[in-house]
Design brief:
2 domains; two-stranded antiparallel sheet; 8% helix
């Protein structure tokens, strides 16, 4: 490695340390990095209420499948039964304009419990929280940069408590950090180049710094991952050259804590690396924006079809 990339790497590392220290205890979405690391975070459906109900019978069976709550001709929220089993599968809450979504909550396995929630800004997904093992606790947090994942956190072992942090560049993994013994300190770093694992760094002395570097066994360009979509948008398959990041403080979290994988959370304490391919959790098998928007009220005010539940 030449001197210039090493210098750039040190600058990036220094910036990460400063940013992590500044964000100690601060909220990152609905919770702080420390809260996600130390306390289980439950996921549950919000109440869709207020305004007047506007019902839509999609399959013409005489029962409402979508209910919009409307005030002054603008939707507050919508409750949707996508598979016509009589239970809510999607909750959508709107911005003040009554058109742009602010929050969507999904029940992907149709068991009556929320498995995924997506947060929007200006109509775009900016953050997601997933319960991939259906225990009622969030185990995966994703932050989006456009359609791609920017960073992620994951709880692999203790229910709902983050112990794995991931950084991405242009949708490709750049580094994964692991707190292997749940002491709040990173002991292992996996470094990626162009989506391929290149080296593993370890802290063998417990001082929070990597003191041993091992090359990745059997790493090759054939094992390269593809960019991961954060909002379900198909991504190009080309893989740009990306600089590897060095071991340091966790991405966007508190100093001494760290970034989880978009895939299902592992319960095996001996697992050293989560899946790094495309997201396979139910939360990403369907785009967050595919839910029907039937029966949207017009500017003249709500129109009802049938009777409210």
């Amino acid at each position: 490695m030449t001197g210039e990339p090493q210098t750039d790497q040190r600058i990036v590392l220094a910036l990460l340390i400063v940013c992590a220290a500044c964000s100690r205890g601060s909220k990152d979405g609905t919770t702080s990095a420390e809260e996600r690391r130390t306390k289980p975070q439950p996921i549950a459906a919000k109440d869709c209420e207020g305004g007047d109900p506007q019902n839509v019978d999609v399959n013409n069976d005489g029962k409402p499948d979508i209910t919009h709550r409307v005030r002054s001709g603008k939707r507050i929220c919508s409750v949707m039964d996508l598979n016509f089993d009589g239970r809510t599968d999607l909750l959508r809450f709107y911005e003040d304009n009554g058109q742009s979504p602010a929050l969507e909550q999904h029940d992907y396995d149709f068991d009556g419990h929320v498995d995924d929630q997506a947060f929007f800004k200006a109509g775009k997904v900016v953050r997601k929280e997933l319960d991939t093992n259906f225990d009622g606790l969030i185990d995966t947090w994703l932050w989006c940069q456009g359609p791609q994942i920017e960073r992620a956190e994951r709880a692999r072992r203790k229910p709902g408590r983050v112990d794995t942090w991931e950084g991405y560049a242009q949708g490709l993994l750049s580094e994964i950090q692991y707190d292997e013994n749940s002491d709040g300190q990173v002991e292992k770093w996996e470094v990626f180049q162009d989506g391929s694992l290149t080296e593993v760094k370890l802290d063998t002395t417990g001082d929070g710094k990597a003191d041993r570097t091992d090359p990745a066994a059997g790493a090759s360009s054939d094992q390269r991952d593809k960019p991961i979509s954060c909002d379900g948008t198909p991504l190009p398959t080309s893989e740009p050259k990306l600089p590897a990041t060095g071991a340091g403080t966790p991405f966007g979290g508190d100093a001494g804590t760290g970034v989880g994988d978009a895939g299902a959370a592992s319960t095996d304490a001996s697992t050293s690396a989560p899946a790094t391919g495309p997201i396979t959790s139910p939360a990403d098998s369907t785009s967050t924006s595919v839910a029907p928007d039937a029966g949207a009220p017009d500017a003249s005010g709500p129109k009802s079809k049938g009777k409210a539940k």
